[in-house]
Amino acid sequence: MGRDTIVLAAYFVSSILFILGVKSLTHPDTARRGMQMAALGMIVAIVGTLFLHEIVTFRWIIIGLIVGSIVGYPLGMWVPMTAMPERIAISHTLGSLAAALVGIAEYYNAYQLVGGTGVGRPMMAALGLEVLFGAMTVTGSFMACGKLQGFVTEKSVTYPFQNESNIGMFAIAVLMFLYLIVAPGAQLVFYAMATLATLLGVLMVLPIGGADMPVLLSLFNAYTGLAAAATGFALNNYVLIITGALDGASGFILSVAMSKGMNRSFTNVLFGAFGSGTTAAGAVGSAEGLAVKPITVEDAAMQLAYARTVIIVPGYGMAVAQCQHQVRELSDLIERRGGEVKFAIHPVAGRMPGHMNVLLAEVDIPYARLYGMEDINPDFNQADVALVIGANDVVNPAARDEPGSPIYGMPILNVEEARSVIVLKRSMNKGFAGIENELFYRDKTFMLFGDAKDSLGKLISEMKNV
Amino acid sequence: MNTVIWFAQLYIAVLAGFVGYQMIARVPPLLHTPLMAATNAIDAITVVGAMVLAGRGHGWLATVLGTIAVASAMSNVVGGFLITDRMLAMFRPDSGGTAAPKTVAATNGRGAH
Questions:
Q1: Residue B20 forms part of a structural domain
Q2: Contact B20 A366 (CB under 8 A)
Q3: A103, A177, A318, B89: which one has the fewest Cβ atoms less than 10 Å from its Cβ?
Q4: In this structure, are residues B57 and B63 in contact, taking their beta carbons and an 8 Å threshold?
Q5: B84 belongs to a structural domain
Q6: Would you place residue B35 in the very low, low, confident or very high pLDDT band (cuts 50, 70, 90)?
């Protein structure tokens, strides 16, 4: 009795610390301290659990904790900021793996100990959800990591009747889940459902192209949360329910924000119709026969040096080229010559929500200069130069002007309103949506071709001479 | 397990979801990446469920699965909180002038040290 009270009190304290930690994230000045409190909450919960009377041996717990810490440390300290999307994807895999394994083992235990009647219906509902979402996220998020890291092709892999078969398999998994609630003792159905969910994770992610990663990562964030909350229901553990709900809410909010940023409906996102627009994309774009205007490094540096206001628009290309340090150096040089530099961050720039902000914060750019789309769009018409670094679809005017375009309706940054636009681009390859970008052919647009890091390096040395 | 407990769980889930939605909707896009890392780290609280499984002594299979679950959840605890902290330490407010020395700017947002 006494020991279990300690455990319950520990969970209560950590629940409060977790909620405060998440609340602190509403402002960058309070966020760090708040999350340190949340980490304290985690320690309280883990230490508290050791007092549970159910625990008879500590050996395996200690081994697990040590192995986990050894794996976790490099994942926390060594991963570069540019690799954050992959890092988050792999942590979704690990988190949902834990949930799925707990679910499977709990079911197995209940079945072994008391037979088919050992699992009650509400318990079965919780375990079923836990395993369904958990198993799907384990492989799905691993695939997402593979696509981001490059060991799985980043392109959307499609085959005939893909959506139909995926939705069909998902429906079968849901039916199995419902059947289990009616007949919790159907062992085979339970394991078949777990296997099917594991397979579905892979199949679901195959058709998803690189540009849709922000939505996918947010979605898996929500799934991991759901799996954790379901674990809480199954184990009757309130701290699990609360954190699962928090995580689920965050994943849901981010998914909605990302789908808004791409002008996709939430159902479109949920049911894997992802990359489907891209097949039709090739034909769109009226840029045929037009020519782009390349610009020399000298001229670009001249424009930047005499600009009063420069708005820098970073995209995934900045993360790929890992040139955030050069971006910072260039912006310092512009400011030293009296110009003002602002950064325009599109909600879906990069491969995950907020990635660009982290990269720019990494190089010590104060967050007050990082502007969201709505805040910066009215400022473009007063800017002398808009400098686009590795962004494409988020600055494509077709989203506004061409009803036939697959990205039509997607909110974009108004770069073409700036007095002049300089685009740093590797080549004339199309963006990830595979769509021609008319911005590149506009009169006031100048293209600076080459690797972003190289180009910025040359711009920097040229700026020093101007 | 009785119905009262199940309803208590539902109440908690709904209330926590509501509180979470209200709070997280106010997290600025600036911090969306740290938010995802943070919720991931907190979510690794499943480690406590895994610990019970690994330490309860209900047969070797449950123990093995439990131990793997403890390890994978724990790697999210350690890695998740560390990387969240690393990211949040980088966000600093504007130090005013553009020519502000870097050292001043660096200490500004890092009061926790």
A1: no
A2: no
A3: B89
A4: yes
A5: yes
A6: very high
Known catalytic residues of A are 393
Distances (CA, A) of A1 to A9, A54, A117, A158, B66: 12, 12, 28, 57, 25
ipTM: 0.91
Distance between CA atoms of A334 and A240, rounded to whole angstroms?
Answer: 50
**How far apart are the CA of B11 and the nearest CA of chain A, in angstroms?**
10
A292: distance to nearest CA of chain B, Å? 34
What are the boundaries of each domain within chain A?
1-78, 86-274, 283-465
Number of independent structural domains in chain B = 1
Considering the entire predicted model, what is its pTM?
0.90
Task: Give the CATH number of domain A283-465.
Answer: 3.40.50.1220
pLDDT at position B100 is 40
Q: How confident is the model at residue A121 (pLDDT cuts 50, 70, 90)?
A: confident
Pairing of strands A385-389, A445-449: unpaired
Backbone angles phi, psi at A397, to 5 degrees: -60, -15
Per-residue exposure over A287-312, b if at least 16 CB sit within 10 Å of its own CB, e if not: beeeebeebebeebbebbbebebbbb
Q: Do A109 and B62 touch (CB under 8 A)?
A: yes
Q: Which long-range contacts (CB under 8 A, 24 or more apart) does A289-293 make?
A: A290/A441, A291/A441, A292/A428, A292/A440, A292/A441, A292/A445, A292/A447, A293/A445, A293/A446, A293/A447
Q: Is residue B2 part of a domain?
A: no
- Confirm whether B73 is domain-assigned: yes
Q: What is the pLDDT of residues A354-383, one digit of tens each?
A: 999 999 999 999 999 999 999 999 999 999
User: pLDDT, tens digit, for every residue of A408-447?
Assistant: 889 999 999 999 999 998 877 665 556 788 899 999 999 9
Domain that holds residue B52: 28-92
